């Protein structure tokens, strides 16, 4: 059985979003290396791009969807995560 | 102290129909996300206000709590948080941002004439 070892921070993001939002699809791209030397990167926070498809977003405005993602990540938004780009979709949306 | 800064933020978002809290300025953005949000707004062709949060540590520290939104940039239209970079660009690509800011500026003009505002101005 082969297993890809995931960065612990990506794993943490995946676990929290999965627990809170039960996504049908969840893709996390770690862009931290591209931002090395950046002010936030020096402080230790990572840069991530999250694409998440969840029924929980149905009928919600973009700002509400993003807040749900931030709420699920909790205090990690100020520690492990410096920047997060979010694409939050309900099933069936492009 | 903290109440003062919250009052200052409230005044800024209420007296400016379109205001962007960003890292750096539209001419010299200090962060890619702020740069992209400012650029989208400039392309809307209306005047907007901005606050460089790197030059205002009080706002930098307190705005996320005020807004219940953890990151910068933050775009406010008609006193209400619209979102950060992703949402701003999403709306711009759909052509909705252009409409929203134009309507906000017109509504504000009709209401106040050309009143003094708090915050720096960026011509569009």
Low-confidence stretches of chain B: none
Biggest beta-sheet profile of chain B = 5 strands, mixed
Quaternary structure type: heterodimer
CATH architecture of chain A: 2-Layer Sandwich
Helix/strand order of chain B:
HEHEHEEHHE
Number of helices of chain B: 5
Strand content of chain A: 15-25%
Number of strands of chain A: 3
* The CATH top-level class label of chain B: Alpha Beta
Tally of DSSP β-strands of chain B: 5
* Biggest sheet character of chain A: 3 strands, mixed
Q: What radius of gyration of chain A results from the CA coordinates?
A: 14 Å
Q: Structural class, from helix and strand content of chain B?
A: alpha+beta
CATH superfamily of chain B: Glutaredoxin
Identify the biggest protein-protein contact and residues per side. Answer: A-B, 13 and 15 residues
Could you write a compact summary of the structure shown?
The complex is a heterodimer of chains A (94) and B (124). Chain A has 94 residues and is α+β, with helices and mostly antiparallel strands.
Main traits of this protein?
heterodimer; A: 94 residues; alpha+beta; GMP Synthetase, Chain A, domain 3; 3-stranded mixed β-sheet; 3 helices; 32% helix; 24% strand; globular; B: 124 residues; Glutaredoxin; 5-stranded mixed β-sheet
Task: Describe this entry's structure for a reader.
The complex is a heterodimer of chains A (94) and B (124). Chain A has three helices and three strands, in the order H-E-H-E-H-E. Chain A is of the alpha+beta class and 94 residues long. Chain A has one domain (8-89): BolA-like (GMP Synthetase, Chain A, domain 3), CATH 3.30.300.90. Chain A has a three-stranded mixed beta sheet with strand order 1-2-3. Chain A is globular, with a radius of gyration of 14 Å. The mean pLDDT of chain A is 88. Chain B has helices at 2-15, 32-43, 57-67, 85-93, 96-112, and strands spanning 18-22, 48-52, 74-77, 80-83, 120-122. Chain B has 124 residues and is an alpha+beta fold. In chain B, helix 1 packs across helix 3 and helix 2 (32-43) packs parallel to helix 4 (85-93). The termini of chain B are far apart. Chain B has one domain (2-100): Glutaredoxin, CATH 3.40.30.10. In chain B, strand 3 (74-77) and strand 4 form a beta hairpin. Chain B has a five-stranded mixed beta sheet, sandwiched between helices. The interface between A and B is medium-sized, with 13 and 15 residues.
């Amino acid at each position: 059985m082969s297993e890809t070892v995931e960065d612990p921070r990506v794993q943490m993001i995946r676990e929290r979003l999965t627990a809170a939002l039960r996504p049908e699809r969840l893709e996390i791209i770690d862009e931290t290396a591209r931002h090395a030397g950046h002010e936030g990167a020096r402080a230790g926070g990572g840069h991530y791009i999250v694409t998440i498809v969840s029924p929980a977003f149905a009928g919600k405005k973009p700002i509400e969807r993003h807040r749900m993602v931030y709420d699920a990540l909790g205090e990690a938004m100020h520690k492990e995560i410096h920047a997060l780009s979010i694409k939050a979709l309900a099933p069936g949306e492009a | 102290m903290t109440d003062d800064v919250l009052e200052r933020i409230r005044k800024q978002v209420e007296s400016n129909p379109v205001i962007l809290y960003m890292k750096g300025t539209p001419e010299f953005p200090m962060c890619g996300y702020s740069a992209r949000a400012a650029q989208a707004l400039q392309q809307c062709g209306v005047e907007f206000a901005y606050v460089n949060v790197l030059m205002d540590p009080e706002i930098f520290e307190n705005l996320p709590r005020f807004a219940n939104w953890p990151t910068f940039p933050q775009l406010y239209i008609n006193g209400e948080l619209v979102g950060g970079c992703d949402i701003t660009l999403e709306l711009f690509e759909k052509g909705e941002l252009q409409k929203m800011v134009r309507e906000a500026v017109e509504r504000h003009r009709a209401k106040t004439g050309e009143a003094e505002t708090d915050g720096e101005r960026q011509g569009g």
